[in-house]
Amino acid sequence: MKTQLYSVRMHASSNGEHLSGAETLVPENRLEAELVALLQRARQHPRGEAEQIRFAVDLVDQQDLVSACLPELRTLQVASVDQGRELAQSLLQLTGVTATAAQTAVACLASGASTSGQSMRGAMLVDAGNGARLEADHDRGVRVSRIGLEESCRGELARQLEVFGLNNPHVREALVLAGKVSLHPDILAELCWSDDPDYTTGYVCSPELGYLRIPGLKPVGETRGGRAFFLRPGTELKALVDWLEQTPVLFDRIGCLHSAEDGRSYAARLATAAG
Ligand code: AMP
């Protein structure tokens, strides 16, 4: 008999403000351990003490399960936050996002994309052409759920990331999330930086570019972070949101991991190759 698979979601908040969240897919033999680990994470989060911690556990219908390969990973070095944000915008433009849409998204994340000027719980949906925000709720955004690593892939990813000193939950979880997002044909690219005040690395990810980490995409101590998914103009929103929230994706293969390199040289090389 096939092992049952559960979707686990956690959301912690205080005074109505989002503090932390997590979503994963776990086999039944790891369910309890995962719930305890997420409870500990919610209670020890650097963004503050949670007043409310909510869990949702749902059995997943494995008929819909998608198996996929994680994106390739590269680290691009920059000299400052401004240079990092400029680099992120150049990379986004190489994926077909307009300069206006890239600039608007960076400005929204920098100033706090929720209605109160803080971090949203989920991602913004941004029209890749005109930069308009398309998500129905500017506080909640869209939370990508039902994402995880196949058991055999979990250990292998940890081992390979270790070689580059990158084996931490931020990288592992963001890579999995970005991997699912980049599978959707209507999403040209994603931009992210964390809302965790101690974690300043962000990334741009797209099917062609892979997962491009940019250390120092925000200043230390900054609690405003977020995600922007850049949509092909005219994308049918309901189908897209249903897919991001509901379709289970388990990664069973790892993309190539590359050494760190200078961000500007890398972008210049890509731009030349693109003609
Ligand atoms: P994190 O990388 O966990 O620090 O999250 C940074 C930001 O990304 C959060 O403030 C949310 O706005 C957004 N975010 C986190 N998790 C998800 C998710 N599962 N789906 C969509 N957006 C997310």
Can you give a write-up of this model?
Helix 2 (81-94) runs antiparallel to helix 3 and helix 2 packs parallel to helix 7. The model has no long low-confidence stretch (mean pLDDT 96). The chain contains 7 helices and 13 strands. The chain is 32% helix and 27% strand. The strands form 3 sheets. The protein has a 7-stranded mixed sheet with strand order 6-11-8-9-10-5-13, with helices on both faces. A 3-stranded antiparallel sheet has the order 2-1-3, with helices on one face. The radius of gyration is 18 Å and the shape is globular. It has helices spanning 31-43, 81-94, 99-111, 151-163, 169-181, 237-246, 263-274; strands spanning 5-14, 17-27, 52-59, 66-69, 73-77, 124-127, 147-149, 187-193, 202-206, 210-214, 226-231, 249-253, 261-262. It binds adenosine monophosphate.
So how many helices? 7
Globally, the shape reads globular
Between the first and last Cα atoms, what is the distance in angstroms?
A: 53 Å
The ligands found in this model are: adenosine monophosphate
Helix content: 25-40%
**Low-pLDDT ranges:** none
Compute the number of strand runs.
13
Order of strands in the sheet with the most strands? 6-11-8-9-10-5-13
Judged by helices, strands and strand pairing, the structural class is: alpha/beta
DSSP strand (E) fraction? Answer: 25-35%
Q: Output mean pLDDT.
A: 96
Largest sheet: 7 strands, mixed
Order of SSEs, N→C? EEHEEEHHEEHHEEEEHEEH
**Rg calc:** 18 Å
